[in-house]
User: Fold these one by one.
Assistant:
Number 1:
Amino acid sequence: MTLHAPLAIEATGLVKTYGDTTAVAGIDLAVPPGVVYGVLGPNGAGKTTTIRMLATLIRPDAGSARVLGHDVVTEADAVRAQVSLTGQLASVDEELTGRENLVLLGRLLGLSRAGARARADELLEAFGIAAAAGKLVKHYSGGMRRRLDIAASIVVTPRLMFLDEPTTGLDPRSRNHVWEIARALVAEGTTILLCTQYLEEADQLADGIAVIDRGTVIAEGTPAQLKASVGSGGLRVRLLDAERRPEAAALLERAVGPVTLEADPAGLTAQCPDSARAATGVGELARTGIGIAEFALDQPSLDEVFLALTGHAAEVPPPAATLEEQPS
Amino acid sequence: MSAATTAPDAADTAAVRRAIASTARPPRPGPLSTALTFGWRGMLKVKHVPEQLMDVTLTPVMFLLMFTYLFGGAIAGSTSAYLDYTLPGLLVMSVLFTTVYAGVSLNTDLTKGVVDRFRSLPIWRPAPLLGSLLGDSVRYVIAGTVIIVVGVLLGYRPDAGVAGAVAALALVVVFSFGLSWVFSVLGLLLRSPNAVMNAGFTGIFPLTFLSNVFVDPATLPGPLQAFVDVNLISILATACRSLMDGTPDVGAIVVSLLVAAGLAAVFLPLTTRLYRSR
């Protein structure tokens, strides 16, 4: 127990079952305020169910959780007054215009009629959807829809935001915009619980990560800690002369660790427990007179972390399929 | 207003940051104000999704034309006599068909995740349901008015004049408030908006035909006649006919109102309970 600022989220032993399926089998979470905290896991791991419990949408069958100091069951309204949801968790209304959606939420949150309109216009402008403000949301592009979604969740700036799969199906440019917005929110003091199956996204944004699989937290820590826990990275080398690769492979195998050859005929990677051993390997190559075009020490990716922790790869749906689901 | 360097279709991070920093949480709105806001949403739906209204309005108009001109003469001796008989019944059919959409739109909100958005807000819980009644009632009035106007264009003249027509329309709309909660429950239980529509019409379509909307039950075989006589749609149609003819059938009117109240008493609490737990 620490005596620091109260936790933004504190969950103990959360359980949720549906019939004989256990969606969440006892999850503990401790999220400090003012950070992006990633909840990472494959489809069906229990991420969404966990977040729905934290956001007061469903009641836990067992365990308890406090969000911003309030119990999610007995003080649900106090929780609701400080959090907002995005994505699959809480959708905007496709049969209204973007502007109407924002005005509606403004009114429901207690803004005056004029106040709600002014806020809607401010957000539409800031999120680059002013030109489509009067169009029905079902005609929006995927990226526009996602921005409106986030705009809708900051009509009144929340102290905690549940950001659910915010970039699924987005092109890299739109994805970067969403990430910038998330960073801006954190800079203003909002805590973000980021739910994602993209390891890169968690790596980019999150200060802390909980990896969830089959309804339990199987690992927790900073992205760097998680990577370190899996151990070795790799020494990646590209030779000046592809002809000498077999020779270099034999040498690195001896000096560093198991070698894999890359598709690039001059490239190879040696598994490497620490940077000292990598330095030795590079030194040996130089001494033998094998020219090096470039070399780098790779940390294991979170993909590898995930594979190592769960024994199966992260299942990432093809982004194209998600895009096609966007309303036409 | 925003930085000129930003592409028009992208978020302007500086402006987003200002927008994030600029709000203080306003006081929570009252229950009435919240329900009225949802009422406004209901009205916007009528404007943006006119297809729903077209579907339910055109079917009764089609039946009106078909029955009056194809069968009217054979059933009632002349098309104008048949129109006199059937128009109040078609008013009932037209408005009751529209009530199915209360369930369809609730299910749409549910499957699209809009309900979750509302449930995540610190608002008075029943407000979304009560507010949607306002939009629904506009649909009921439009559907009912269309059928009456088409009837008048074809030569229908209610004996009780405009007052009779308005009274009949009001009765059907009040009855629909009760019935719509049945479809709201279906909307919360079934998987998709289409399933709600199918289940709704599978129920209401045969009930409409096995009533006195289209034919006088005097010619029906005994058991069928017995069913038609106790069918609520018959009773409501009889009440409307009596109001439009200027000879109010108090019994039928009272039964219709009591049934509406009964349906609401059972299905409204059921709806709010399901809405909370889904």
Note: DSSP finds twelve helices and 14 strands in chain A.
Number 2:
Amino acid sequence: MILANKAVENAADHAVAAAAANPPGITKLTENAELFVMMVLLTLLAAITLAIIRQRNMFGVVILAGIYSFLMASVMIILDAVDVAMTEASVGAGISTVVLLATLHLTQSIEYPQRRSVLIPFFISVVVGAALVWGTSGLPAFGAKTAPIHGHVAPTFIQYSADHKMPPNIVTAVLADFRGFDTLGEVTVVFTAGIGVLLLLQGGWRVTGNGRRSEDDDEQQGMDSSGGTA
Amino acid sequence: MKEAILEFAQHYNYFITIFLMISGLFIVIARGNLIKKLIGLSLFQTSVYLLYLTPAKIHNGTAPIYDYAYDTYSNPLPHVLMLTAIVVGVATLALGLALVVRIKEAYGTIEEDEIFSKDPEAE
Amino acid sequence: MRLDLILRVGAKLILPFILLFALYVQFHGDYGPGGGFQAGVISAGMVILYAIIFGIRAAKQVAPPRVVEMMVPGGVLIYAGTGAYTMLLGGNFLEYTPLAHDFLHAHEWGIFSVEIGVLVTVCGTMIAMFYAFAERGRS
């Protein structure tokens, strides 16, 4: 019942506060400023991508991929996707950089020059890109409130949080409650991938060597157990 | 002229998304190094994040965390989809890298051409 | 023993705060940005940082591989178990309303339980993956 009182109180404050948050004169300015910052960050993203394509030292590529992830997280902040930005900053720049570096340590860190011609892949990419650019002309403008995506289920989700039926963070509410079954599937995929990595790297079927997973107790003499597999 | 520039600026997100997408595609097709291929694949994947998140944004909106002071929120649904996609993406990237490690141990190289030359059936 | 004293002391200083931040992200996920996925990755990042600086053997005493491997399916079981429990209470699979009398409280409990499951699986998977790659380099 306290909640109901609070809701009424909030509704009264609502109009005043909303007007204070968005005074009409500033809106156009913030809109353009957002657009400008976004364009700068996106241009930087494109530059990093070109550097990734050209760089042949794989260590450099991995570091560039980390920079790319941080830039992408910044773009996501401007797109108001704070949860996604947090995930991208911790996963893309943290975990995936560590895993890539570990792989480089296990393999090689130089990419050999290509013997094949890049003309056909370039042609394919340009044709696909041109087709997609032609398709963008039908997409709604950036930040338009009238875009069809905003009309269907999103108002319901927001209304549930506004009515104090769900926690204030709408993303968490949708993730764990409205689409809980979907998230169960995603967690299962993470679980499956983890099991796959464990089977591939720690499984008992190595190419050479005595073929059993290393535990703490045999690490002392573990150097000769399966070294020199190549 | 001014309308054309504004039109370009409002669709700039999509253009960069497409550029990232075809860059990832190009790396996957043209480069022979398997780790580079996987990085290209994750570039492609990141462009999909951008493709989903761009239409979710509303001008003068705020992040989808409810507070009575705001009445415009960006669409939470693409955020949810992309949040899980990022974590699933790194898990599958690690799975691919584990396969690369096994290929390196079996063939001694991670360059596609050399693997093919060592594997006569693949030609 | 080596010249990485600053790294070791600095890491020891920030490690508890990383864990605290992970817990904050986990339990404040209803009210601010965050949730099980982010908290799992951040807490796994803490263990990985510890392993990189102090060696993987020291990290294995903090997070034993057996526990980590049990966390990988454990989180999925917690998640699916929440759904099964709500079915036992008479609701649908993952319908949280029967968990408590108040609608908001029931759903907050459901979200809490599910996010714990996500945290456990994601954290366990990331640490297990790191152990797998790091051990492959040693042997």
Note: Chain B has a mean pLDDT of 87.
